[in-house]
Amino acid sequence: MNHSPEIKAFIRQHSALFWYTPEDKKEEISEELLVEMILNYGDLEAIQKLIEIMGIRKVSSVFFSAEGRKKFNYFPEIYHFFTLFFTRYA
């Protein structure tokens, strides 16, 4: 995946969330994994920055594109909250 320099810097800043990904592969993670990890484990500042960088419509699109098992990678309360949030604001 070819991310913008801003997304790459954001991933480096939050690299601890991707502890199981080899250092040389972190900047190549998918948008789906990036959104999932930030929404599940990031703080409010990280979530706001992700939305600022990617745009609320793009983050919403990636969030709602999760189907099947991937949908259940989100914590239930996170999935419920962001379903309501993106339905209202995106």
Major β-sheet annotation: none
Structural class: mainly alpha
Gyration radius, rounded:
12 Å
Number of domain modules: 1
Shape: globular
Describe the structure.
The radius of gyration is 12 Å and the shape is globular. Helix 4 (56-64) crosses helix 5. It has helices at 5-13, 31-41, 44-54, 56-64, 76-89. It has one domain (5-89). The protein contains 5 helices and no strands. The longest helix has 14 residues, at 76-89. The protein is an all-alpha fold and 90 residues long.
Please outline what is shown here.
The chain is mainly α and 90 residues long. Helix content is 60%, strand content 0%.
SSE topology:
Elements: H1 5-13, H2 31-41, H3 44-54, H4 56-64, H5 76-89
Helix pairs in contact: 3-4, 4-5
Q: What keywords describe this structure?
A:
90 residues; mainly alpha
